[in-house]
Amino acid sequence: MTKTEFPPSIISRPVYGQLAPRPGAFHLFVADGEGAEAVVELFDKADPSLKSRAHILYTAGPNGTDQWDKIAALGANQAQKAASIPTLLFRLARVLQDTPMDAQIYLTGTEGLMGQAERDVMALGFPHVDIQKEHRGSTVRRVQCVHCKGITENVRMDPFQCSHCGLHLFVRDHYSRRLAAFQGVNIDAEDKGQIPPAVERFK
Amino acid sequence: MSLDFKYGFDDFFRDETFVDDFTYRNSPQNIRRFPFPFDRDDYMYSVNMEPHVPGRKGSVFEKTFDVDEHYLSEMRDRARVLAADPLRCQSLPHMTLAGWDLLELIMETKAREYPQWFSLTKDGNRWHWINRPLGIDQKFTFLDESTLPYGPMEYITRQTQGDFTLQDEREGTLWVDAGMVTTQADWSLDFNIGMNFHEWHAPVPLAHEKGIFDRALKFLLKLQHGSPVRRYNWTMTVNPLLDTAPETYPEWGHMRTALTQENMGNMMHLRVELQTLYRLPRSNAILFDIRAYLGKFEELVQVPKWGRRLHRVVRDIHPDLATYKGFIRNRDAMALWLSKYDDGAPTSPGWWPED
Fold it and tell me: Which member of A11, A146, A190 has the closest CB to residue B191?
């Protein structure tokens, strides 16, 4: 079961577990923020030979958490720190070109990071059974505005203002893996200007 | 190449709009064939599937793909929506074969059931399609995309009433991997494309807990080629908007606040979806056809049985369902208006207007 406690939600929301070492010729880790701790715990549980076949891509979390030191201390065969999630995804695309199909892939950290990495991994045909996900750290959401299609990253408040078209959106509990995003819907379409006070739903 | 319609409006095909001045309405004979969805005086979800076989003469079930008096105006409205937002029609790369299956099914069926309007002749894979109401005369090579002005799904669904989605079957579930969606009750193809059966139904209240989607999926995975099935769904729509998409909700949402007892009969519409499902032969995909029919309250109450029953359903519906269907804010006003047409008399079982 996930260590992050989520409120009851709906069925299109991904379910997260806990990373567990599995046999594989190659072990690819993608992590952000507090996800570093899940990687460290997995290394503690795994056979010591795993690190000679491990490649870790890491970036700081949206809340600023940076545990790169813990990653660097693991002694993995390869490890890089990226400046942001988009730059991490560029590196991931290159690494995946040489990743064998019998690799084990571990994603951990925030939903936005895991969702985008999973999307890119699955687009290359890696079977989802070889991908594990563990949520750690911030629960901020990546949200697509259903009206202008713009993505707003790191949404904490609900409702919030679309960073592209400026409409006030509520965050619907509906998640697209293809977009790696939740759905944002205009909250005052019926009663223009009646926007409830924003509350911090995602931290 | 392009698809230039020459709309053949006449005494049968009405020239009307679903936007701006909203000139859409049903002729008296079309009211009588409205697919009224309530077979009793209350409503709760059910899977309610039945074989899609020819029904009563003159009813919307008589033919496989019903072509009615709104055909040309609906196709013009679809072209308008697609021009404004091409994302309403999308097909993931592996779904092209299913698109050809769909094109074949519609062309063969319409040519057989409506020979006065449609014609299909074949010489091997060289096909000749004529759609007289839309002024189309097209020769093309079956399974060769380069010989049509659009992909096969888009080509044929620009000429066919109803929304269409194509579901790929893998991993023991269905994936909505293609669709033409311009007459939808507030769901986004662009957001949902690529989702599996349980994911795209996730926002529906109450039904998951009742196991409805588990049973429906089990049923659909057994669907056989040549044995299509159908069911109803329904909601309420203010003004005859075929296109109530989430994308354009800021443009139409405010119309829900304009209802009064005076304009209710003209503005409030019962929106019925006749949903049909087909297994397709080459791709093994499942076609889902969602055909929307709009009936004004003032049209429906002309059938006394429907007026009584619609009042009772609206008055007694579970609030969660009224919320999901988007009419909770107007529910009481709707029930008040409809109460004038309910004298308390018993209604007969079934949805037909008379028996």
Answer: A146
Q: Where along chain A do its domains lie?
A: 27-135, 141-200
Structural domain contains residue B309: yes
The answer as to CATH 3.40.50.80 being correct for domain A27-135 is: yes
Chain B (242-281) residues lying within 8 Å, Cβ to Cβ, of chain A: 246-250, 252-254, 256-257
Question: CB–CB of B195 and A173 under 8 A?
Answer: no
Contact predicate B34/B201, CB 8 Å: no
Whole-angstrom CA distances from A64 to A67, A198, B29, B37, B203 are: 10, 22, 67, 54, 33
How is residue B244 annotated by DSSP?
Answer: B
> φ and ψ at A172, to 5 degrees?
-80, 145
What pLDDT, on the 0 to 100 scale, is given for residue B204? 72
Complex ipTM value = 0.86
Question: Hey, are the CB atoms on A183 and B188 less than 8 Å from each other?
Answer: yes
Q: Is B205 among the domain residues?
A: yes
A9 in contact with B, Cβ within 8 Å: no
Structural domain includes residue B133: no
In a domain, B92, yes or no: yes
Whole-angstrom distance, CA of residue A88 vs CA of residue A59: 7
- Provide the shortest C-alpha distance from residue A52 to chain B (in Å): 34
- With a cut of 70, which residues of chain B have pLDDT below it? 1-3, 47, 205-208, 355
pLDDT at B1: 44
Task: Give the best residue of A9, A11, A144, A172 to mutate against chain B (max B CB count within 10 A).
Answer: A11
Residue B329: predicted pLDDT? 92
Rounded Cα distance, A126 and A103, in Å: 9
Nearest to A146 among B247, B253, B257 (CB): B247
Q: How far is CA A18 from the centre of its chain?
A: 14
In terms of CA atoms, which chain A residue is nearest residue B193?
A178
Q: Are B155 and B104 in contact (CB under 8 A)?
A: no
B231 flagged as catalytic: yes
Residue B194, φ and ψ in degrees, nearest 5: 95, -5
B202 with A186: Cβ contact below 8 A: no
Residue B255 belongs to domain spanning? 28-99+166-339
Summarize pLDDT for B151-178 with one digit per residue, the tens: 999 999 999 999 999 999 998 999 999 9
Closest chain B residue to the Cα of A182, Cα to Cα: B191
Q: Nearest-5° angle of CA A177, CA A180, CA A184?
A: 105
Q: Is the CB of A179 less than 8 angstroms away from the CB of B191?
A: yes
* Number of domains forming the structure of chain B: 1
Q: Which residues contact B222 (CB under 8 A, 6 or more apart)?
A: none
Cβ contacts of B200 on chain A, cutoff 8 Å:
12
Cα separation, B14 vs A4, whole angstroms: 58
DSSP H/E element including B50? strand B50-51
Using DSSP, state whether B160 is helix, strand or coil: coil
| HSE of B353, CA atoms in CB hemisphere, 13 A | 16
Residues of chain B found within 8 Å of residue A11, distances taken between Cβ atoms = 198-199, 201-202, 208
φ, ψ for residue B286 (rounded to 5)?
-110, 125
